[in-house]
Structures are given as structure tokens and as C-alpha cells.
Fold this protein.
Amino acid sequence: MTKVNLISLQKTYRGQPVPVLKDFSLSVNDGEMVALLGPSGSGKSTLLKLITGIERPDAGDIQFDGVSILNAPPNKRGAVFMFQKSYLFPFLNVEENIGFGLKVQGVSSETIRSEVTRMLDLIGLPGTERRKPAQLSGGEQQRVALARALVTRPKLLLLDEPLSSLDTEVRMNLQESIRNIQRELGITTILVTHDLGEAMAMSDRLALLLKGEIVAVDKPEKLFHHPPSLAAAQFMGVSTFLSGDQLTVKNEAGAGSSEKLLAIRPEHIRIQKEACKNSMQGVVSDCVFRGEYVEYQVAVKEITVRARMPMPAPMFPHGEQVRVRFPAEYLFEVN
Ligand code: ADP
Ligand code: MG
């Protein structure tokens, strides 16, 4: 059981002009899963490397239960990694792969066997002890990699885009399993991903990382419905911002602008024929049927408004004159 404090971490790679992490602070509570969401190149993997000790921060501190681990060697820190590619040992069977860490620690083979059995039950693959990694599907290999990471009872589990190479159904399945296993073992976890859906589905709290800095941290549902800033809103899939009383549509606010903006989620925007309050004239530039919803792009003045109308929804063809409505009850302020 571990509380993790990441305090004002800074990291600039040698020869690079800009820092990867500028002033990164985040606390992860005991048994909590925090998802760190950020675009590719935002420094997510770098953060995990600082925690495991593969890289050193230029400044700041990393504490487990209030004690700095910066001077501990990587193998003594108690943090384990699970990556996108599992890198199981190909010549070892499932039992030997999962038991590897315990064997290194000198644990008796009897204990190893019972621990492996327990882990296989936990990951939903009982009876696969004798199989080689090549005889497992991609999703099963990731499950075994998770078991191998957890069998030594680490203080902290670090997941670096662990599911991004799997197809949708397997991924959803594993998201749920990992979440359940994490809860059952009560292991403190940081999940790094660029997938908003995955981050929301799996985490207790969500941290948004942009250009080396955290722009917001909160419960997923809170950030989803009430992102505190323009940057946070964009992370959460909001692309339409309105300013002033005239409902000027903006796709992005001017840099450093201090004006208050109104924002609206794409699924709350309505595309219709009738003119009414809070609506603007537009021309359909794209209308895509996605099964559960219809995705619209509508040109309003010189801006593109993106809307997602849940089914049943009208389908207006390209070039159709429509009204784009922003229901007042769904508008929220961002800074
Ligand atoms: P993410 O995991 O969010 O995609 P990374 O932490 O891998 O981001 O990388 C952040 C930035 O640091 C990228 O611009 C990447 O090119 C750079 N970077 C990563 N590792 C090194 C390294 N060892 N040396 C120099 N630059 C690096
Ligand atoms: Mg990465």
C-alpha cells in the first residue's frame, strides 16, 4: 500500500532545447488508479521512466509514503512496468514467466506454484501454466504480463499504453479486468494513455498533461462535464466555444486571451431546420452515420462546428442549409 508524491519534477533531455516536464506535480493516493492523459510526445513515458529510475529528474522529488526514492536503484524502488508490448520470455511457459520475479527473489517453488495459480485465476486464464507465449492471443499475453508484474506485490503499478496494440473488443475486456484486479489487490497505479475513453473508463482520477505541465486533475465525470479551462475542455473532446452575447463560434481561443468563453459538448449541439433561440445559420459540410449517432460538420460563418446527434437523428445532406442550436442548459463557462 503506497501513496505516491511526484513533486515539481523537471526533465530536459540532453541536447534538447525545451523541457519535457516543466513543473510536474501529482499525488496518487493509496490504492488509487490515476490516468495520465496526454498527446503523443507530451512526456508521459518520460514521467514513468523517472519513477522507475531509468531516467533522473533535473529537479524535484519522487516520494513513496513520504520517503524519497530518488537515490534508490531501479530494482529496489518497488515500481513495476507494463508496456504496450508485453515481452514475455518466449522460451519460458506461462508459469515460468509469471513466477520469474519470485524465483529471482529465491522464493520456494511450492510458493511460486500456488502464487502463479492464484494469479492465473485472477487474470481469468486458469490452467494455462504449460503454454508458451506464442500459444496465447495478444490479449492473453497482456494478461500474463500483468500477472508477472503483480506477482511480486509491487508498491506501484505503471501501465504505459498497455492496451493500444489490441483490437477494440479485447481492449474493452482487458480495461475491465485490469480495473477489477487493480481494485481487488488495492495496488496504487498510474495509467498512461492518449485514449480519452480508456482513461475515463479505468481511472479514479484523470490528469491532463500538455507540454510538460498538468492542466487539470479531477474525477473523469467531473472533467468531462465541467472542464475548468479551455485546454482541459479540448482534451475532453470539446471543440466549439462561443464568446460574447452574439454567440460567435470559435474553434480555439486566441493564445493568452483572458475573455470568458462558453463551451458546449458536441453531443449537446442540435442540427435542425427550424430557427429558434440560441441557434445560428449553417451549411452542412459533412454528415456521417455512425450507428449510435450521426456525426455532423457544419460551416457556421468561417468556422466548422462538430456535432454528434444521438439516434434517432435527422440526416441532412452535404450543402443543406440548417440551423445549429446551442441549448442554453448545456452551455458552460471556461477560462
Ligand atoms: P509520450 O510518452 O507522452 O509520447 P515521451 O515521454 O516518450 O512522450 O517523450 C517526450 C518527448 O521527449 C518527445 O519529444 C521525445 O522525442 C523526447 N524524448 C524521449 N526520450 C528521449 C531521449 N532519451 N532523449 C532525447 N529526447 C527524448
Ligand atoms: Mg509514451
Notes: Helices lie at 44-52, 94-104, 109-122, 138-150, 168-185, 196-202, 220-225, 230-235.
